[in-house]
Each structure stands twice: as structure tokens, then as C-alpha cells.
Write a sequence for this structure.
């Protein structure tokens, strides 16, 4: 479904005065507001190709209708999101769920929608029809060289698809691990995995990055061979300068201090990017900022501080990707909310006066330090993000316009109620 520009302009016109009033109020208290607005306009978040349909659990899946039936329709749906908020200008593909039938056509369609290809994702956690070796007992860690070879070849094939589409990074998430003590020689598993990743690393074009995604548990429930940030850092350090860690917010044990992990990985120049989502218990893949928005703000505070300390470009030097699953919400509404939550946390972090905070830290003025942080966190930055959208030609209130245009109803008319998108 296409959203014509005039419909966005009409919608914005109705609420423009109210927006201007709110924007001028918050802008009046922000020192470098134009610099912040430009950063918000430049910031783009990649949408996962595997999260455009209804997700589910082993207990059930409740399809919502109008789901994309092909990669082309997935790109159209992301194009619609990007038209509404002007900060969803990238797609992250998962292979083989989204093999591009004709890369040039897919590339041209994405370009029409202003969508670029972010990290490619390999899949050695499921057995495909006709596959020679099973990944039941792992892939790159596997005791059997044939299985490891198959996993290596698959990742090299994924890189090839990515090169054709203009992607410049590969995310490797390995489900590998064990379910019971004694099942696995964990040192050998590490060495097999490292050797396998080294063979994939050797095939990376010069300008590419490899993201090693860690996860504490699931689908293995005793050990995971890339189980935490330390292990991912170890692999990325041993692999070489093109290898980095990838932080999926849902992949930590309860109460992990993720913002500290982010601060250290960034300082060590080994932070590659993010899979944003939220969770209360484990890898719940809930809407970003829906459970713990303060943690998301603290993570962005460390990101802005750490990137500025190294003179990094906020928009392009790290991988900004969502990885969520939509069990009860309309997938596109859920993604609009997630993108908004990320932009809010980023804008709040940009309001933190780094010099004031450092002065408080150097004076051990703990109260002042907290007041500086929470002052930024408690600032309603939504008018700043809306203004950035307005300047980018998008909607002041994407979710409201999405509903006003009855997008889901139209997609169901176009595609039917029973369509199922590939993915999780
Ligand atoms: C694993 C993960 C990984 C993806 C998958 C869809 O939990 O986060 O990033 O490959 O979800
Ligand atoms: Mn992930």
C-alpha cells in the first residue's frame, strides 16, 4: 500500500499549530537544538525482514491478516513505515527466509522506497529441506567437520547475496550449545566455532563487518557457545579488525548492566551494533521501550558519550537494528512504536550535558549527577522528534496517520486474512 505525500501533508496541516507550540516550548530549553534535530533527521533504524508478520510462541500464533507474502511486499511495508517516520530507511535480511529471487529487481524496488540493505543474517539454527547435515547438535561447534563445512558455506553464500544487494555486514547468531552437563566439550566447541568463523571472515570483502551476536540461553539451556559479551569479544578480537560484537538487548541474564557492557565494548572499539527490543524475563522480543525505557536511555547515554569520545558518526558507524516479535500487536504498529522509542532515548541522551555531568562526577556529587541524567530523561522530547520528521517530509504522528489511513484493513483487502510472512 502506498501513502501519497499529499495525505501526509494534509494530516500534518491539521495538527501543525499544536505541534509548533509544543516544539517551541521544548526547543526554548535546549541549547544546541538545530544540531540535535539534524542528528535525529540523519538517524536511520533497520527493520528486520523476519518481523513483518505475526510472531508466536510454542503455545500458539494468532495471525493478524494482510501479512507480506514475498520479499517485495516486505520491502513495500518497510517503505510505508519509512514514508510515515522517515527513520526506517533500511532492511536487515535473514537467509534463507528472504532469498532475493532477482537481486537487481529487489535492489531497484528498495531504492524506490529509499530503503538500503543493512546487515545480512545467516541461519544455521534450523534444518532446511534437503539439507545434507543436521544442525541438531550445533553448526560451527559441531564435532563433525561436514556439519561445520556446511555452516561455513552457508555464511559465505549469505555474504554473496549481501554483496549483490549492497549490504556491508554479516550478523552471525549461533544457537550452538548444549542442554546437559557432559554433553559438550566446551573448549573444543569454542575452538571449532572460532576456526569456522575464521573461514567465513576470510571471505569478507574489505569494507564489510562481521557481527558476532551473543545470547545467554535458548534454544540450548545448559551452555551457549557464544553465550555472553565476553565470549563474543573473545571471538571478535581473535578474528580480526572487521569483527565486532552485536548486542541484542534480550540476550542477557536478568539484571545485567547492559549500558556498562556497551560502554566497555565501545571503548574497546569492538561494538558493532544492536538488536533493539525489550524484555521483562528473557528473550521476550517485546516492543522497544515498552518495559524498561530508562535502561534504553542509559544505553544511549553511554553510546552518545562513547561515540563522541571517539569522534564517531552517530548515524553510520554502528548498526542500528530492531529484532522483535509481534505476538499480539499489528506488526507495523509495533515497529512504529519501537522506532519512536529508540528515537526518544537517543534524543534524551543528546540532551545530557556531558561537561556538567563530568564536573559532578569529578566532585563525587552523586545527587547532581543523577539530576543531570534524569533531567534529560524526564524531558518530553517527542516534539523534537516530530519536528525532525516534519523536516524530513514525514508524518508528525505516524501511528495516528497509519490508523487514519486504515493501512491494515487495506493490506487485508489486498493480501487476504490468511497470508503468512516468512520468519520467526
Ligand atoms: C536470536 C535472534 C537472532 C536472530 C533471530 C531471529 O534470538 O535474536 O538475532 O537471528 O533472533
Ligand atoms: Mn537478535
Amino acid at each position: 500500500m502506498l501513502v501519497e505525500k499529499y495525505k501526509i501533508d494534509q494530516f500534518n496541516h491539521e495538527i501543525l499549530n499544536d505541534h509548533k507550540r509544543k516544539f517551541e516550548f521544548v526547543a526554548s530549553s535546549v541549547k544546541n537544538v538545530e544540531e540535535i534535530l539534524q542528528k535525529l533527521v540523519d538517524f536511520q533504524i533497520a527493520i528486520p525482514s523476519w518481523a513483518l508478520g505475526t510472531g508466536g510462541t510454542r503455545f500458539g500464533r494468532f495471525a493478524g491478516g494482510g501479512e507480506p507474502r514475498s520479499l517485495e511486499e516486505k520491502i513495500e511495508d518497510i517503505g510505508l513505515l519509512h514514508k510515515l517516520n522517515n527513520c526506517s530507511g533500511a532492511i536487515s535480511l535473514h537467509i534463507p527466509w528472504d532469498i532475493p529471487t532477482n537481486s537487481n529487481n529487489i535492489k531497484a524496488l528498495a531504492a524506490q522506497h529509499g530503503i538500503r540493505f543493512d546487515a545480512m543474517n545467516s541461519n544455521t539454527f534450523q534444518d532446511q529441506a534437503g539439507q545434507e547435515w543436521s544442525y541438531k547438535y550445533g553448526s560451527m561447534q559441531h564435532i563433525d567437520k561436514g556439519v561445520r563445512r556446511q555452516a561455513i558455506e552457508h555464511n559465505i553464500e549469505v555474504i554473496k547475496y549481501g554483496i549483490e544487494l549492497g549490504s556491508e555486514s554479516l550478523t552471525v547468531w549461533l544457537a550452538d550449545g548444549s542442554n546437559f552437563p557432559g554433553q559438550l566439550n566446551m573448549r573444543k566447541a569454542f575452538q571449532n566455532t572460532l576456526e569456522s568463523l575464521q573461514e567465513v571472515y576470510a571471505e569478507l570483502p574489505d569494507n564489510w563487518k562481521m557481527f558476532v551476536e551473543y545470547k545467554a540461553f535458548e534454544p540450548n539451556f545448559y551452555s551457549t557457545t557464544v553465550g555472553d559479551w565476553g565470549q563474543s569479544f573473545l571471538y571478535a578480537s581473535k578474528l580480526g579488525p572487521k569483527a565486532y560484537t552485536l548486542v541484542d538487548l534480550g540476550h542477557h541474564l536478568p539484571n545485567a548492566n547492559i549500558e556498562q557492557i556497551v560502554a566497555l565494548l565501545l571503548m574497546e572499539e569492538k561494538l558493532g551494533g544492536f538488536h533493539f527490543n525489550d524484555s521483562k524475563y528473557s528473550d521476550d522480543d517485546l516492543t522497544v521501550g515498552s518495559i524498561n525505557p530508562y535502561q534504553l536511555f542509559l544505553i544511549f547515554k553511554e553510546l552518545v558519550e562513547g561515540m563522541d569520545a571517539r569522534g564517531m558518526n552517530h548515524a553510520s558507524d554502528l548498526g542500528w537494528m530492531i529484532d522483535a516479535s509481534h505476538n499480539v500487536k499489528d506488526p507495523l504498529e509495533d515497529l512504529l512504536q519501537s522506532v519512536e522509542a529508540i528515537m526518544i532515548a537517543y534524543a534524551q541522551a543528546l540532551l545530557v550535558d556531558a561537561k556538567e555531568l563530568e564536573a559532578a562526577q569529578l566532585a563525587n556529587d552523586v545527587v547532581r549527577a543523577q539530576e543531570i541524567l534524569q533531567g534529560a530523561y524526564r524531558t518530553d522530547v517527542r516534539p523534537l522528534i516530530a519536528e525532525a520528521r516534519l523536516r524530513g517530509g514525514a508524518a508528525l504522528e505516524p501511528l495516528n496517520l497509519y490508523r487514519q489511513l486504515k493501512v491494515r484493513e487495506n493490506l487485508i483487502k489486498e493480501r487476504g486474512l490468511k497470508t503468512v510472512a516468512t520468519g520467526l
Remarks:
- The chain has 15 helices and 13 strands.
- The first helix runs from residue 5 to 27.
